[in-house]
Hints:
Number of helices of chain A: 13
Cofactor (chains A, B): Mn(2+); Mg(2+)
Number of domains of chain A: 2
CATH topology of the largest domain in chain A: TIM Barrel
EC number (chains A, B): 6.3.4.21
Mean pLDDT of chain A: 94
Helix content of chain A: 25-40%
Structural class of chain A: alpha/beta
Protein name (chains A, B): Nicotinate phosphoribosyltransferase
Largest interface: A-B, 91 and 90 residues
InterPro entries (chains A, B): Aldolase_TIM (IPR013785), NAPRTase_C (IPR041619), NAPRTase_N (IPR040727), Nic_PRibTrfase-Fam (IPR007229), Nic_PRibTrfase_pncB (IPR006405), Nicotinate_pribotase-like_C (IPR036068)
Oligomer: homodimer
Amino acid sequence: MCEDGFFDYLRGIDCSDVEVYAIPEGTVVFPKVPLLRIEGPVAVVQLLETPFVNLINFASLVTTNAARHRFVAGKSKTLLEFGLRRAQGPDGGVSASKYCYIGGFDATSNVAAGRLFGIPLRGTHSHAFVSSYMSFDEIADKALRTKDGSSTCEDFVSLVQKWLNKIKWSNSFRGIFSETNQSELAAFTSYALAFPDNFLALVDTYDVIRSGIPNFCAVALALSDLGYKAVGIRLDSGDLAYLSCETRKLFCSIEKEYELSYFGKMSITASNDLNEETLDALNKQGHEVDAYGIGTYLVTCYAQAALGVVFKLVEINNQPRIKLSEDVSKVSIPCKKRIYRLYGKETYPLVDIITGENEPPPKVGERILCRHPFQESKRAYVVPQHVEELLRCYCAGSSDKKQETLPPLKDIRDRCIKQLEQMRRDHMRRLNPTPYKVSVSAKLYDFIHFLWLNEAPVGELQ
Amino acid sequence: MCEDGFFDYLRGIDCSDVEVYAIPEGTVVFPKVPLLRIEGPVAVVQLLETPFVNLINFASLVTTNAARHRFVAGKSKTLLEFGLRRAQGPDGGVSASKYCYIGGFDATSNVAAGRLFGIPLRGTHSHAFVSSYMSFDEIADKALRTKDGSSTCEDFVSLVQKWLNKIKWSNSFRGIFSETNQSELAAFTSYALAFPDNFLALVDTYDVIRSGIPNFCAVALALSDLGYKAVGIRLDSGDLAYLSCETRKLFCSIEKEYELSYFGKMSITASNDLNEETLDALNKQGHEVDAYGIGTYLVTCYAQAALGVVFKLVEINNQPRIKLSEDVSKVSIPCKKRIYRLYGKETYPLVDIITGENEPPPKVGERILCRHPFQESKRAYVVPQHVEELLRCYCAGSSDKKQETLPPLKDIRDRCIKQLEQMRRDHMRRLNPTPYKVSVSAKLYDFIHFLWLNEAPVGELQ
């Protein structure tokens, strides 16, 4: 074990001299670009390695994963994060909810995250809520006031039963069901009595088409009599493409049969182990889903469960440092650096360029050579029309630099969505995207390779 | 958003009537066996669904993943958990460290987890520590007392340099290096001055064979002159099988050349994106690694990033409840239940059997019919020689039941390791293991299928 003195040392650590430069949260970033630049006393900054890498890796990964799901689902769909139960403990779940929201999700079912960060909360009742009911006898208070408050229906339960009998012989449901599950109907009725303005029912506890949908429609039609509009249903199992299309057909048929203009457009939410691939497959097959609840594959980042962000010493006492490796992708780029994003005439970014701290910045309208950091032959001249410096000071330490303020979560989310929309389409392809180019200045290129030769030990061939 | 009143309600929730029955932590468990049985007021217990599932899913998954890594690595290797930087935030990392220890890891590099749970702490210095040094000039205090305290070497740095020159022309290193990286040598020397009893060096910052190993050996031999034994090295890149074998050869050669009996047996730790497959490949190829540091693939459970534990209502007001699904694996087993693990004459368990709460328990020496919960034809008679009831009371609520006490973490870990060792070997195969059988009593079988027929709505074929 550690000596106790080490914990005392940790407790007493003074971070007041540490400067933090970071790319604003919600920015699209690429491999090799430093996300943070930390300056400060070497012992303190080395102890910060693990906390910083811990805080950045999962946050960046799950935001990216959320953005990928949004990209496949399309802008018009509502995306709900349902992942708390699969996250790495309560805190893992809260991080997941926060960063999925930044990545473009609309809401979370994680009530704590909603409370902490003001993320919109959405969810439905559980299967257990449905199966906790046995019959209508459990509903004590059967009265419901009409939406306009003008009168009260004393027996909403009878109204629901009347509607169920009516639709059983309707054109819409002819031959679809003989008897629906009565405990499910009791649960839906009870839920509607409590939330007449927010009636969204989970319809797959027993059988979607033979029980869940007719029971839902009976309650929704009873609500309609009292001036309320039901919200819709959630499907949590089975063939979501087929079931959503069948449900939509029934909703539209009822709209027509009973002249209820909103009925066909009610919301259909789908869940059940959804991921990028299943969303893509649903799109290809055709479906009638309006909203997706996504959990497991989203928060665990199932398709790629880890991001490999690392923290490297690049300069000490004004001396550049390099970490070599047999694997070129693991060689670090030395020196205190600046990063610029260069834009052309279009709105999308062309290339990122990394320079030494004291090099003159790229100038609008002036040609600049952008070099691949490790491959000599890869280089291009760029004439930027707009130059954006990426690293900003978020913690000035004991320097007198101006500190950026942290924007509200909503603004970070807006930035993220906007940045993704600005990217050139071929960088955004799901299969074989064109890699976005990250370059170094000519001066930095020469310096990297000078150091590399200098630091790498020379062997003797036997 | 939620109404504020809901948060007030959550704050005021009274869990004093909730009873929790659980399988002791560290027990080997199988699909379909309930890990917990919760009893209490329906509203409170429904709100506990997400917290319980959140707390159980990742903990069980990562413990299993750790146990799988231990199984492949073998009992004799030291396993170090290095995953904090890839976990879902600080709390995710602490959970990962705790449960990897239960699953059979020996230590963690997560200092907070060590402090919180008494898990042994192990780690090495970082690459940044190596590259933070430029030269010997940075070492202010060069004196080191001998291990026995009898005298002081006033210039340990010169002693290291003397040894480096000596081994350069030794039989062991002939032709291997001409010059090693001097900042690396300064870093190793400085580390040895601070921790002469715990000198374990990360040797791949520049070049393992040409720089890291000779530098390490020079420092280790200088330490040896003063009576200290170096611990060993860590490899964090490159071909770990090859590099570990080459390193071992050099260590053994030095042992012989300088008559230092411990030198050949020094510890070689390997890290760098290790997982079950790479451990298996290393075993097949042959290697000289004594300890593995495993991070990313361990804590993110990369091979299967989520476990699908769910929480179902099975009984309310003494009435059994069932959740149906088109997918048989999602049909819940109704009723308040007991679970027994049946053992035969050997020490390994034969089968788990789930019964209704009030059925007589299986008896030693008495034949009992074990049925597959859903397939009518699958059944077997078992005559148990030992019967273990799995669910124990950990929270008695307002009942007068005796509560189990929670054992220390070390005991949970011992239980887990012992249970895994007891399993029949064919259940433990990595490829196509024989599934362990989980059964229900004849009475429960009949009841499940009676309820299923009763609850499932009947359709009409068109």
